Amino acid sequence: MKFLITTTPRRLQVPPVALLEAAKAWINAKLADKTLDCCYGFITGGGVSICNAESADAVLGLLMSYPAYYGSDWKIDALCDIGLAMDQVIAMVRRAGG
Question: Among 50, 36, 42, 39, which Cα is nearest to 79's?
């Protein structure tokens, strides 16, 4: 399954450089092993990524291993294949007489 993950930093204080370096290394490792398809930062802080995981529970475990997990707020959305989704919508509309 694919998940859209959006994160926003809490900005309570400036994080230590060591934490930022650990977070960067974690992201690079997850990109290298294909756990993350992509990861982009927002100009204002935080960012977005596409994650590959077997379940929402697996995403939770993954995020909790992120070094800066506690300093961020998270939004996670499950993604679906657009072609399959559109086929289902078309079938539903046809059943409804459209």
Answer: 50
Q: Over the stretch 42-91, which tens digit does the pLDDT of each residue have?
A: 998 899 999 999 999 999 999 999 999 998 999 999 999 999 999 999 99
Nearest to 56 by CA among 38, 85, 79: 79
The span from the CA of 9 to the CA of 16, in Å, is: 14
Strand-strand pairing, 2-9 and 72-79: antiparallel
Q: Residue for token digits 């657009």?
A: 82
Q: What is the pLDDT of residues 2-51, one digit of tens each?
A: 999 999 998 777 889 999 999 999 999 999 999 999 999 999 889 999 99
